[in-house]
Amino acid sequence: MKRLLALMAVFALAAAAADIAGTWKATAEGPNGTMERTFVFKVDGNKLTGETTSTMLGKSTITDGKVDGDNLSFTITADFQGTELKLSYKGKVSGSELHLTSSIAGDGGGQSFEWTGKKVE
């Protein structure tokens, strides 16, 4: 009986985790106005993969992605005017809302952006 209860608790936690997989559209305020980005997330256990696209940086592959309940983190490498730029993202999914903070990986000068998005149904 204890084993059954433990198994049910594990399934309940898994069911309570956010449904991160899918397509999300997000915006952030940048120095030149509103930026838009589309994220396509794929989840396998606690591994997050996929790709992201923006008009400014084009398409990038999601790497080093992790999911822990409603929390997610990943990096992308983008081409910014001929310079390779590595960006780190961390955030949380709450229902159909996505909240991420992105920053330049390493010594990025402290600049970060707050992204807010919705899942595309």
Q: State the helical fraction.
A: 10-25%
Mean pLDDT: 85
What is the second-level CATH architecture? Beta Barrel
Task: Assign an overall shape.
Answer: globular
Using the coordinates shown, work out and report the CATH topology: Lipocalin
Largest sheet: 8 strands, antiparallel, barrel
User: Structural class given helices, strands, pairing?
Assistant: mainly beta
Count the DSSP helices: 1
Question: How many strand elements?
Answer: 8
What is the H/E string? HEEEEEEEE
Cα(first) to Cα(last) distance is 40 Å
The amount of beta strand, in percent, is: over 45%
As for the number of domains, it is: 1
Residue stretches low in confidence (pLDDT < 50, at least 5 long) are 4-16
At the first level of CATH, the class is Mainly Beta
Backbone CA Rg: 16 Å
Strand order of the largest sheet: 1-2-3-4-5-6-7-8
- Assigned CATH superfamily: Calycin beta-barrel core domain
Task: Tell me what the structure shows.
With 121 residues, the protein is mainly beta. It has a single domain (19-119), classed as Beta Barrel (Lipocalin), CATH 2.40.128.20. It has one helix at 2-16; strands at residues 22-30, 33-44, 47-54, 58-68, 71-80, 83-94, 97-104, 112-119. The chain has an eight-stranded antiparallel beta barrel with strand order 1-2-3-4-5-6-7-8. The longest helix is centred in the N-terminal third of the chain and has 15 residues, at 2-16. It starts with a helix and ends with a strand. Mean pLDDT is 85; it is low at 4-16.
Please supply descriptive tags for the structure shown above.
121 residues; mainly beta; Lipocalin; 1 helix; 8 strands; globular
